[in-house]
Each structure stands twice: as C-alpha cells, then as structure tokens.
Design brief:
It comes from Neomoorella glycerini. It is built from 6 helices and 5 strands, in the order H-E-E-H-H-H-H-H-E-E-E. By secondary structure, it is mainly α. The chain has one domain: Arc Repressor Mutant, subunit A (Orthogonal Bundle).
C-alpha cells in the first residue's frame, strides 16, 4: 500500500465514525416521530400538531412536574387512538368543552414551550405515564360531577388521570 494512503485511513475512519454518531443522535434521541398511528391504521401527520399539543400541555400542565406534562400529552394521544374521540390531535384539542385552556384562550397565551415541547415529543414517542387514561382533572378545582364517575388510574402532581 502506498504510504500516502495509509496516512489517510485513520482520519477517514474517524470522520466516518463521527458522522455516523451524529446521524444516530439526530435520528434517535428526542426527535418526535413524523406520524402518529391511529386505531384505524392511518397515520396522522404531526408536524404542525406537535406545537398545538405543546401549547395544550403548557396551558393545562405548565406548572406540573415533567411526568405530569407528558401525561397530559398522553391523554390527548390516547383520545386520538380511541373510537370515542376524534381521530386527530387538533380535533381532540378543539373538541367543544374538552379543555378549559382552549375555552378561555390560555392555550394561545403561553410563551415558554421548551419543556412542553419535549413532553409532547416523549408522549408521541410512546411514553404514557397514565396507562391509557382518557381524562384528567385537578380534584382541587370545581368540575362536573360526571367526571367523578370515571375510574381513576393514577395521580401525577395535582392531576388525576382516569378512563
């Protein structure tokens, strides 16, 4: 082998390894999936909806622990997968009287979306700390008596999560 080629092997290998590591990190860590599978088997595009989901998380659970933020996102996604609710993130979020923060406009007033966006990505990537909950509420706030007929699964922070 020509001596010039031997000197190039190690730098070329290092460059290939660094590029591979960077690509792996980009595609596998903290990146939201491009589509959300639904019960009907038709994926729902989430590119524009992740911001909407993050806004809802910020408005509904911005002061909750991180796990509670992911849990609120998981409830929305569980509803998308359920035949009892609309089949897209935006349809679930905009369903009349579904979320107080949509009714009172708080969803459009939130400004710090860093943690809620990570929570939305974690929920979209499959983390469901609610174990399939379809509802959540703060027991310290006045709510419809109907919501108390739901089976409570868990409590995270100030919210209870139920089916």
């Amino acid at each position: 082998m020509h001596p010039y080629r031997r000197r190039l092997i190690i730098p070329v290998l290092l460059v290939v390894i660094l590029i591979s590591a960077a690509l792996w990190q980009f595609y596998h860590q903290g990146q939201a999936p491009q589509a959300l599978p639904t019960q009907a088997g038709v994926p729902v595009a989430v590119g524009d909806e992740i911001n909407l989901l993050a806004r809802l998380i910020a408005a509904e659970a911005g002061t909750e622990p991180y796990e509670g933020q992911v849990a609120v996102g998981a409830v929305v996604l569980n509803r998308v997968r359920s035949p009892l609710f609309p089949a897209s993130i935006s349809s679930v979020i905009y369903e009349p009287w579904a979320f107080e923060s949509v009714s009172n406009g708080l969803i459009w007033q939130v400004t710090d979306l860093a943690s809620p966006t990570r929570a939305a990505a974690d929920a979209l990537n499959g983390w469901d700390p609610t174990y399939g909950a379809l509802f959540f509420w703060n027991p310290a706030k006045p709510v419809s008596p109907w919501i108390w007929t739901r089976t409570i699964i868990t409590q995270i922070g100030n919210h209870v999560f139920a089916r």
